Write a sequence for this structure.
C-alpha cells in the first residue's frame, strides 16, 4: 500500500472518528514484552493483548464481542502508549486512563475490578481477592477470572500471588509476572 | 442469528485500493478523493446492519458506484440519486489491470462511467441505465463507444 493511500486511510480514520462511527480503535504499542495490541472504546481501554495472543485473533474477537466498527487508529491510543512507557521505565505508579469493562461479566468482573484497586508495589493472595469479590471460597474461579483478564498490566493481575510465597500463574508465562513485579520493586 | 462481520479495518486493508481505482476510473482522480471518503463513511455507517457478509468487495463497489453517480449528478451529468446503501452485495467483479484503467480514465465522463460499471462492477446494460439514470439503450451505446475508443487505443478485452 503506497504512501498516498496511507494518508487517504488516515484521513478516513479521523473523519470516521469525528462522526462517531468508530466503536473500537486499536493500535500496536511497544513494550519490553514485544508489541502489545491496545484497543479502546469511547468509554476507555477495553483490551491489552500480549504478542502471542495474535493481533488478528484479538481484533476478530473485538469485532465479534464489542462491535464490527473496528479501525486501526494509532492517534487514539497515544495516552495509553505514553502511560505504559512511563510505567515500564519505572516513573508511573498508577494508570490514569479509563477502563471499559465490557469484555468482563459477573464474578470475574468483580474480581478484576477489585484487582484494579491493588496499589502499585503490593501483592494480594487469590483467597483475599475471592473475598474482596464477595465469595471467599471461590479461589479457583478467582484464578480463572485473573487468567482471563482482558487488560493485563493496567488491571494488575500480576499483583495476585499464592499464599505462602509461590507466585502462581500468569498469561503467557511466569517470566512476565516476575518482570512486572520487578518493575514495582516487589521482586529483585 | 446475526451475521459475523469481520473488523471494518480488514475491509479497508483488502479493498481500499480497488475502490479507489474504480472511483478514479468513474469520476476522475480529483472527484475520486471525496467519493472515496464518502464511500467508506457510508459503508461504516451501514456496516453493523449488513445482513450478508459473503461479498464485501461487491458491496463496497456498489456503494462506490452510487457515490460516483451522486458526484456526476452534482456536476449536472446524471439525474437519479441513489442515497441509500444497499444491504446486499453484488457478485464479485473480475480483476483488471491498472494501466487499462488509466486508459478508461481518459474517456469522456459518460463512457468512462458506463465502462467502469460494465467491466469493474459487472452490471448489465439495464442496471447501468438505472444507476446512471439513463435508458438501457443509452447505457449500451456509452459502453459500446467507450470500448470502441479503448480498442482504437490498442486495448482488447
Amino acid at each position: 500500500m503506497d504512501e498516498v493511500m496511507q494518508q487517504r486511510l488516515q484521513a478516513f480514520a479521523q473523519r470516521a472518528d469525528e462522526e462517531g462511527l468508530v466503536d473500537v480503535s486499536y493500535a500496536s504499542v511497544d513494550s519490553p514484552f514485544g508489541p502489545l495490541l491496545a484497543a479502546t472504546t469511547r468509554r476507555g481501554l477495553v483490551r491489552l493483548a500480549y504478542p502471542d495472543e495474535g493481533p488478528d485473533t484479538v481484533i476478530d474477537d473485538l469485532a465479534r464481542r464489542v462491535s464490527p466498527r473496528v479501525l486501526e487508529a494509532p492517534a487514539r491510543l497515544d495516552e495509553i502508549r505514553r502511560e505504559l512507557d512511563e510505567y515500564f521505565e519505572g516513573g508511573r505508579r498508577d494508570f490514569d486512563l479509563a477502563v471499559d469493562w465490557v469484555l468482563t461479566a459477573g464474578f470475574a468482573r468483580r474480581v478484576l475490578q477489585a484487582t484494579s484497586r491493588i496499589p502499585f508495589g503490593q501483592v494480594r493472595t487469590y483467597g483475599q481477592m475471592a473475598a474482596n469479590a464477595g465469595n471467599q471460597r471461590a479461589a479457583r474461579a478467582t484464578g480463572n477470572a485473573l487468567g482471563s483478564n482482558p487488560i493485563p498490566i493496567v488491571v494488575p493481575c500480576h499483583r495476585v500471588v499464592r499464599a505462602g510465597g509461590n507466585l502462581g500463574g500468569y498469561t503467557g508465562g511466569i517470566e512476565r509476572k516476575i518482570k512486572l513485579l520487578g518493575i514495582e520493586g516487589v521482586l529483585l | 442469528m446475526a451475521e459475523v462481520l469481520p473488523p471494518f479495518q480488514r475491509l479497508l486493508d483488502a479493498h481500499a485500493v480497488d475502490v479507489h481505482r474504480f472511483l478514479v476510473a468513474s469520476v476522475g482522480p480529483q472527484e475520486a478523493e471525496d467519493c472515496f471518503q464518502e464511500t467508506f463513511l457510508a459503508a461504516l455507517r451501514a456496516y453493523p446492519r449488513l445482513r450478508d457478509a459473503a461479498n464485501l468487495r461487491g458491496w463496497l463497489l456498489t456503494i462506490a458506484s452510487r457515490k460516483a453517480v451522486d458526484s456526476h449528478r452534482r456536476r449536472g451529468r446524471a439525474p437519479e440519486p441513489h442515497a441509500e446503501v444497499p444491504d446486499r452485495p453484488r457478485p464479485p467483479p473480475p480483476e483488471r489491470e491498472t494501466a487499462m484503467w488509466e486508459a478508461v480514465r481518459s474517456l469522456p465522463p459518460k463512457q468512462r462511467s458506463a465502462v467502469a460499471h460494465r467491466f469493474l462492477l459487472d452490471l448489465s446494460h439495464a442496471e447501468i441505465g438505472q444507476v446512471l439514470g439513463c435508458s438501457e439503450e443509452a447505457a449500451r451505446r456509452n459502453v459500446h463507444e467507450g470500448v470502441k475508443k479503448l480498442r482504437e487505443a490498442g486495448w482488447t478485452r
Observations:
- Chain A has a mean pLDDT of 94.
- The first strand of chain A starts at residue 24 and ends at 29.
